[in-house]
C-alpha cells in the first residue's frame, strides 16, 4: 500500500513539474542583479528595472535582462 501511494505521489509530482504552466516564466524574474558578488546571471527576482536599480544602488552591482526570460521561446496559443 505504501509503495502504491509513493508511486502515485511521485508520478503526480513529475506531472506537475513537467507541465507547461510550471515552465512558464513569472513576471518576477525579468531583471537580474549582476556583478562581482552575484555572478551570472545573478539574482533574478526583479519584475521591474527600477526595483533592480534600487537594490543595486550603492553597490558595484548592475542590472541586466534575465537571459532565461530574454531567450525563452515564445508560446503561441
UniProtKB/TrEMBL annotation:
Entry keyword set: Signal
Signal peptide: 1-24
Entry-linked Pfam families: DUF3551 (PF12071)
Source taxon at top rank: Bacteria
Name of this chain's protein: Uncharacterized protein DUF3551
Taxonomic source organism: Bradyrhizobium stylosanthis
Taxonomic lineage: Bacteria, Pseudomonadati, Pseudomonadota, Alphaproteobacteria, Hyphomicrobiales
